[in-house]
Write a structure and sequence with these properties.
Blueprint (H helix, E strand, L loop, with lengths): L7 H5 L3 E4 L3 H13 L5 E4 L7 H9 L4 E2 L7 E2 L3 H10 L2 H10 L4 E3 L4 E4 L4 H14 L3 E3 L4 E6 L10 E5 L4 E2 L3 E4 L14 H8 L5 E6 L3 E2 L13 E9 L5 E11 L3 E3 H17 L4 E4 L10 H14 L5 H9 L6 H13 L12 H12 L1 E3 L3 E2 L7 E5 L5 E2 L4 E2 L5 E3 L7 E2 L4 H20 L2
Helix pairs in contact: 2-6, 2-13, 3-6, 4-13, 9-12
Length: 442
């Protein structure tokens, strides 16, 4: 809890009540207080400690934003809707804000932006310190159980009655719902915000884990290669063969299945696809430059190699000529030959049969990944699904169903790929709400 010397009336009847002290909630509180210092602002959070998601993000370094953000980096809502939000609070503004509160950011080769200290704790502490400086009160262990609009009240009067599970009652003039989604429920984002929003007239698009590791069946041969990482293009295909989604990034093999940016980014698409098409397939290219290596060109190259070096072992030729970019590629190939292709890796090139050659080429271009599930909400970094943006006024992030209610961050049906995009969406929606509220309350 943040202790502020305020009259009790400012706590029980605040001008602005923010539900959720995560990234979006803290950011909204700070900007609301900066724009209109006369407002009494109270944040309620269900967890004992606030900012858990901030602390674990980016491997505990906090990937604050990305140097280039586009609607193409997001899923859920329309690109036009997302673009309107992103334009309202830019990356430059994000960088300047964190500079102001003592957090300098650095850009890494991937475009991700982290604090120069590589410490998520520094980011959270800076946000909390700014809240304290601005006189914002944060009450932890206060899980909201109900929100009841108080109809036909004058604008200067309380507009809601809010009750918490520990029997406290609050009567704010306006509310910002920043409860997050369902990902990492131990942080407090257990989906309860959706129940509150539904009671206030909102619908919820089906929610699933996103940015979540994918799992293989127990005993899958690739799990023995845990720790092996390589750049690849993952392709998600329908059972008809039609390509649904592709993503190029680094893939990490683990003891349970797949992780790394490639798997995490495609996970929301894989989960959505398999809900409608259980036989949708995921494959990985082992060839670094697929654009210059078609099935036909690879077959001609292998035929020519068999004539030039007939006694060369198959595994040596493939490793040297096609998989040099993969550390530990010989181990990977040996496993694939033994468990997937049933080919002796020491087969001389001249003795490779036509059927085996073609199976090998298909595998190099599209290694089947027998993904059967995902690691669930406890390991998901974000939620896919939520409140549709069609139910939100994007100029103020206010509800189209309930006056004086604003909804921001992960509770909305927008999820970004890995790399700071979800934080940027949180900052942008929070700032829009803060501006609107600060201007509307006297």
């Amino acid at each position: 809890m943040t202790h502020i010397n305020k009259p009790i009336s400012s706590l029980t009847s605040p001008d602005v009540l923010i539900i959720g002290a995560g990234a979006a909630g803290l950011f909204a509180a700070i900007h609301t207080a900066r724009i209109n210092p006369n407002l009494n602002i109270l944040i309620l959070d269900s967890a004992k400690q606030v900012g858990t998601k901030i602390l674990v993000s980016g491997g505990s370094r906090c990937n604050v934003t990305h140097h280039k953000v586009s609607p193409k980096d997001y899923a859920g809502a329309s690109k036009n809707q997302i673009n309107k939000i992103l334009k309202s609070y830019t990356i430059k503004q994000t960088i300047n804000f964190f500079e102001q509160i003592g957090i300098s950011l650095k850009q890494e080769p991937t475009g991700k932006m982290f604090p120069t200290t590589d410490s998520a704790r520094d980011v959270l502490n800076a946000l909390l310190s700014e809240c304290s400086r601005l006189g914002i009160t944060i009450l932890t262990n206060h899980k909201v159980s109900s929100i009841q609009p108080l109809h036909s009240r004058p604008p200067s009067s309380p507009q809601f009655e809010v009750r918490t599970e520990n029997t406290h009652q609050f009567t704010p003039r306006t509310i910002i719902l920043a409860t997050g989604g369902r990902s990492l429920p131990k942080s407090g984002s257990d989906g309860s915000g959706y129940t509150l929003a539904q009671a206030l007239g909102h619908t919820i698009t089906n929610t699933t884990p996103a940015l979540v590791p994918l799992t293989f069946p127990k005993g899958h041969y690739l799990t023995s290669l845990s720790g092996l990482s390589f750049d690849t293009t993952l392709t998600l295909s329908a059972s008809t063969g039609k390509t649904i989604h592709q993503h190029s990034a680094s893939l990490l093999l683990t003891h349970f299945g797949l992780s790394g940016p490639a798997a995490m980014d495609i996970s929301r698409h894989f989960i959505a696809a398999t809900q409608n098409d259980p036989h949708a397939k995921l494959t990985a290219s082992l060839i670094s430059d697929q654009s210059n290596h078609s099935f036909e060109s690879l077959e001609q190259q292998l035929i020519a190699a068999a004539k030039q070096s007939p006694t060369s072992h198959l595994i040596n030729h493939i490793t040297k000529n096609y998989l040099a970019h993969i550390p530990g590629s010989s181990k990977l190939l040996t496993a694939i030959f033994s468990h997937h292709l049933n080919i002796d890796p020491t087969t001389p090139l001249a003795q490779l049969s036509r059927d085996h050659r073609r199976s090998l080429i298909h595998t190099l271009l599209a290694l089947p990944l027998n993904v059967t599930g995902n690691r669930g909400w406890n390991y998901a970094e974000v939620t896919a699904g939520g409140i549709p943006l069609t139910e939100i006024n994007l100029k103020s992030m206010s509800s189209r169903h309930t006056p004086n209610l604003h909804l921001i961050g992960e509770i909305l049906n927008v999820d970004g790929r890995i790399g700071g995009f979800n934080f940027q969406f949180a900052w942008s929606t929070a700032y829009i709400a803060a501006q609107a509220i600060s201007a509307s309350i006297d």
